[in-house]
User: Which sequence fits this backbone?
């Protein structure tokens, strides 16, 4: 991977040791990076688990200690915790180092983090679009980022620092693309945040519907609903923070969603089959586009085995 | 499969030759059934394709001809077409034969079909809960029903005829369970119909959102949304009919859904993170139940490879 030669950071600090950070470490190992990785997590239990798993070369008891001499500091904590952490580590950052975050929301994170960072420190926000419904230090795996997108939101960061971090993520297996802050938050509301909220809602409805026993909902969970339950098992803290911090875009897309849903609901009530048929026909197109883009497989076993191209 | 010995019908007629019927034929072949299968589809093009594929032992040009001397007649047409077809074939049905349908909705189908059927013909409605986003005679495959549920809604049909059809479906690889009509329609609205409508809606929103180019929605389609697009590529005619014919249950569940969604939307607007956290934590439980029921896998690669247990 010649384009990833500039990837190497001498010392890397991972702040937060959940699914994302632990996967970063395992992917760095797989890529043969020689960086020395120091890790910190707020909870002593998480730090103990990390030590037991051999996660990072060194686990320390404070964020301040973790970032000491680090050339790259990655904030991998829930979006709501980014600001306080940035404030705590700021005085201990090495001049010229790069600070990055992996939050699913960018504007709020930038607003919360940048004011604390001293002159001469490069802040390069990122958003690796990868995850599972599992969380914690033992949930990570080296291939999590393979062929997934890692969006880079430089927002004015120096080109050299940005290019180096981009190469770092490519070395972890990810595809990278730069994006404007506001646009990032809107795109993610559409392709990720609102779909997650909807899935959470549908599972919640099924869960407390008394005339359909949970047992039946589970037993007969068909494709569609079963996928929803998978999405709705994602980390509650992370997602609470996503919605708290991407409020504007989320509410805007939710508004559009309910507007559309009511139109379809009305068509069902009034028996307007043509409207439904036309709508369902139109949505087939975007699916075809995704298949052509190689973002998913066309295997004829919807809701069962799904294999990445 | 000793429990499936009573499965054998001498002559079987498949009315409609789409994904469901063609998969029934291939599964019958795989099971080594010796029934003679006659097929009919309204469209001449579909009949030609069926002949080319070797689908059924005989393809005929009318439903009346197809059901002649048949011991089992399976109506595999969109829900809205069940009544007219039943009316057309009724005078040609063999006394004592079993008529069944594979509609995703049961009350409306029963109301549309039963009045046409003569005395002495057994009507045993079923609902195989399996499918893909593909449709047509060439979309079928022998393993579609393996380990999937086929709900049997006898609604007063003779026990012997019901047991025989149940054995038939088990021989095709399906698990079977008997259910009351109204309860079936409600359960399916929850685990299948409304989730599909929601997915169609979300994809529709993304599709006509101008500031997010389709290209980006496709390129960055993350887990969650990508699953939605898969669901939203299902057969428009079939789904139009499902919603037209399961109106009551669909609207009831949709009402509950929007009620819940608005509660979460309000929490986002007002910044009530605790409500969101508690809600998201609760939905994790139902997911655990599905895993315990072996209805899905716990593979740590959400949105990517999904393997059936």
Assistant:
């Amino acid at each position: 991977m010649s384009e990833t030669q500039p990837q190497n950071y001498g010392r890397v600090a991972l702040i937060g040791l959940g699914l994302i950070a632990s996967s970063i470490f395992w992917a760095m190992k797989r890529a043969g990076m020689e960086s020395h990785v120091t890790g910190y997590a707020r909870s002593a239990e998480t730090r103990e688990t990390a030590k037991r798993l051999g996660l990072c070369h060194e686990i320390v008891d404070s964020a301040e200690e973790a970032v000491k001499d680090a050339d790259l500091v990655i904030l991998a904590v829930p979006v709501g915790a980014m600001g306080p952490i940035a404030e705590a580590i700021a005085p201990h950052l090495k001049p010229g180092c790069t600070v990055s975050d992996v939050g699913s929301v960018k504007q709020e994170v930038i607003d919360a983090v940048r004011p604390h960072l001293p002159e001469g420190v490069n802040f390069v926000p990122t958003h690796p679009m990868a995850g599972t419904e599992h969380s914690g230090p033992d949930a990570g795996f080296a291939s999590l980022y393979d062929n997934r997108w890692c969006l880079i939101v430089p927002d004015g960061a120096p080109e050299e620092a940005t290019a180096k971090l981009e190469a770092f993520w490519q070395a972890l297996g990810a595809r990278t693309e730069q994006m404007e802050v506001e646009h990032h938050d809107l795109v993610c509301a559409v392709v990720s945040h609102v779909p997650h909220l909807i899935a959470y809602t549908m599972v919640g409805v099924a869960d407390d519907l008394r005339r359909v026993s949970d047992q039946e909902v589970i037993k007969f969970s068909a494709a569609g609903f079963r996928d929803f339950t998978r999405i709705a098992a994602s980390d509650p803290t992370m997602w609470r923070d996503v919605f708290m911090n991407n409020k504007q875009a989320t509410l805007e897309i939710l508004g559009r969603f309910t507007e559309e849903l009511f139109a379809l609901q009305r068509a069902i009530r009034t028996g307007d089959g043509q409207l439904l048929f036309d709508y369902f026909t139109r949505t087939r197109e975007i699916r075809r586009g995704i298949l052509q883009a190689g973002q998913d497989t066309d295997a004829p076993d919807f809701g069962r085995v799904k294999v990445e191209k």
Observations:
- The domain at 6-179 of chain B is CATH 3.40.50.720 (Rossmann fold).
